[in-house]
Amino acid sequence: MNLILFGPPGAGKGTQAKKLVAERGWVQLSTGDMLRAAIAAESELGLKVKDIMARGDLVSDEIVIALIAERLPEAEAAGGAIFDGFPRTVAQAEALDALLESRGKPIGTVLRPVVDQNELVER
């Protein structure tokens, strides 16, 4: 199963993803974590991403989708992927949908945690 969790920062996406990883063994695909890992590994992609982020620019959809595609076999072997805060744009959503459809593994569920705005502001 492929599951998308999206919502504002602090809504609990990462917390819920970690619970699903622990309980179901699925793979959490957080693009932020993946970008930080690529930078830490000092891979070719990581160095490219580091330069982009150092300039304050957004990492392209193409790079983000490539990171996701690289991890899909691992997620498929585990029985599912949890897309944590991804996709962020319509273009990313369309690319993800096409990528998953081509693999015969469409999105199963999309969850958007609803949190009172006052709770988000106070934290």
Protein model, in words:
The protein is an alpha/beta fold and 123 residues long. The protein has helices at 13-24, 31-41, 44-54, 61-78, 90-102, 117-122, and strands at 2-5, 27-29, 81-84, 107-111. It has a 4-stranded parallel beta sheet. Helix 4 (61-78) runs parallel beside helix 5 (90-102). The mean pLDDT is 89.
Summarize this entry quickly.
It is built from 6 helices and 4 strands; from the N terminus they run βαβαααβαβα. It has helices spanning 13-24, 31-41, 44-54, 61-78, 90-102, 117-122; strands at residues 2-5, 27-29, 81-84, 107-111. It starts with a strand and ends with a helix.
Strand order of the largest sheet: 2-3-1-4
Question: What would you report as the Rg, rounded to the nearest angstrom?
Answer: 15 Å
- What distance separates the N and C termini? 32 Å
> How helical, in percent, are the residues?
55-70%
Unreliable parts: none
The largest pleated sheet is described as: 4 strands, parallel
Topology as a string of helices (H) and strands (E): EHEHHHEHEH
SS field, number of helical segments: 6
Name the overall outline: globular
Task: Let me know the number of strands.
Answer: 4
Structural class per helix/strand content?
alpha/beta
Sheet-strand content, in percent, reads: 5-15%
Mean pLDDT: 89
